[in-house]
Amino acid sequence: MRFRHPDGSTVHLAYCTNVHPAETLDGVLAQLRDHCEPVRRRLGRDRLGIGLWLARDAAHALVTDPSALRGLRTALEHRGLEVVTLNGFPYEGFGAEEVKYRVYQPDWADPERLAHTTDLARVLAQLLPDDVTEGSISTLPLAWRTAYDQERATAAHTALTTLAERLDALHELTGRSLRIGLEPEPGCTVETTRDALAPLTAIGHDRIGICVDTCHLATSFEDPHTALDALAQARVPIVKSQLSAALHAEHPHLPEVRAALAAFDEPRFLHQTRTLTAAGLRGTDDLGEALTGDALPDTSPWRAHFHVPLHAAPAAPLTSTLPVLRAALARLVGGPHPLTHHLEVETYTWQALPPELRPRARAQLVDGIAAELTLARDLLTDLGLKELP
């Protein structure tokens, strides 16, 4: 979906296909047929943006087989879909029964991460619509915090510098300008936008910036205006923003709140949980850990890294951090000029919701994704953007 900003520029809105995990190119093509095109039709749109997630094997198949890449582009056009952004965070296995810590491997100190992201860039340069010259790829924020020493930090810095040089060369070759955004996430070396300032400033290349995920922003209790102002002051480019909402518990000491949170403690994904105390941010790596004993202080609100559907906040006594998303979006695209032109709804946890909230059929998932995009569209038009055909 495209929107005209009052300054005349185009803002793109997509939804991320990591909600339909597939490891192979055939799986990706099936996603387009079974999910993405039905979402577009449900919205009554001639064109829909999707943020593709391409696992290692699918990306490698595309970059080594020009006919396969042409076939994917043809399939996108045939189904009324367009791609300006990729989700390069998960490497493989995102549809596994247990993902948890595996999603952070390989990290930016490992050569496989550079190779994979280079493949993604080469693919995206060929998938961009004919009238679009700028693309974006989000990626993990360097590494998970454990076992990340100075030697690995140096390796990660070198890899990102090499990637920037490759993107420069790709721009010269194709005329397509691609940028990479580190996506701060709780528990990682770069947990907050503030944590991103030092490494991104050290790299100092405008092709390497940040991806602001509003669920992660909220989970870490970052104020959107303070965070985005600091990025602007440091001249760190906001490559893209993922529109998402976290799980919020206002009174975690109450038994009924604990019981409601426990329904979201599931075995597939990591749900880092945080609370803001007078001594600073406190947290656990997963929601189950927070609910066990006194691992986390419960005198202040808790937020958990659980991407809840934008249009459907959890039932009381829980809620979502949609207000943080609204505030961030107002700052991102509500000013005289957009701070980013790529927005992506990223609710990949539909099948990880408590059983009674999960979609029971493909059509229900299509309805849910369409409802999320409708909410995002309304937020954008309320900010003065005009939806384009």
What's the end-to-end separation, in Å? 8 Å
- Class from helix and strand fractions: alpha/beta
Report mean pLDDT, rounded to a whole number.
97
Biggest sheet details: 8 strands, parallel, barrel
Shape: globular
- Report the sheet-strand fraction: 15-25%
Number of helices: 12
Low-confidence stretches: none
According to DSSP, the number of beta strands is 15
**Rg on CA atoms, Å:** 20 Å
Helix content: 25-40%
Could you spell the SSE succession in H and E letters?
Answer: EEHEHHEHEHEHEHHEEHEEHEEHEHE
Strand arrangement, major sheet: 2-3-4-5-6-7-8-14
Fold and architecture overview:
It is a single chain. With 389 residues, the chain is of the alpha/beta class. It contains twelve helices and 15 strands. The protein has helices at 25-43, 56-64, 66-78, 111-127, 150-174, 193-203, 214-219, 224-233, 255-262, 287-290, 322-333, 362-382, and strands spanning 2-4, 10-16, 48-52, 81-87, 134-139, 177-182, 208-213, 238-243, 245-249, 273-277, 280-284, 302-308, 318-320, 342-345, 386-387. The strands form two sheets. Strands 2-3-4-5-6-7-8-14 form an eight-stranded parallel barrel, surrounded by seven helices. A hairpin with a 5-residue loop joins strand 1 and strand 2. The chain is globular. The mean pLDDT is 97.
Q: What is the fold's blueprint, element by element?
A:
Elements: E1 2-4, E2 10-16, H1 25-43, E3 48-52, H2 56-64, H3 66-78, E4 81-87, H4 111-127, E5 134-139, H5 150-174, E6 177-182, H6 193-203, E7 208-213, H7 214-219, H8 224-233, E8 238-243, E9 245-249, H9 255-262, E10 273-277, E11 280-284, H10 287-290, E12 302-308, E13 318-320, H11 322-333, E14 342-345, H12 362-382, E15 386-387
Parallel strand pairs: 2-3, 2-14, 3-4, 4-5, 5-6, 6-7, 7-8, 8-14
Antiparallel strand pairs: 1-2, 1-15, 9-12, 9-13, 10-11, 10-12
Helix pairs in contact: 1-12, 2-3, 2-4, 4-5
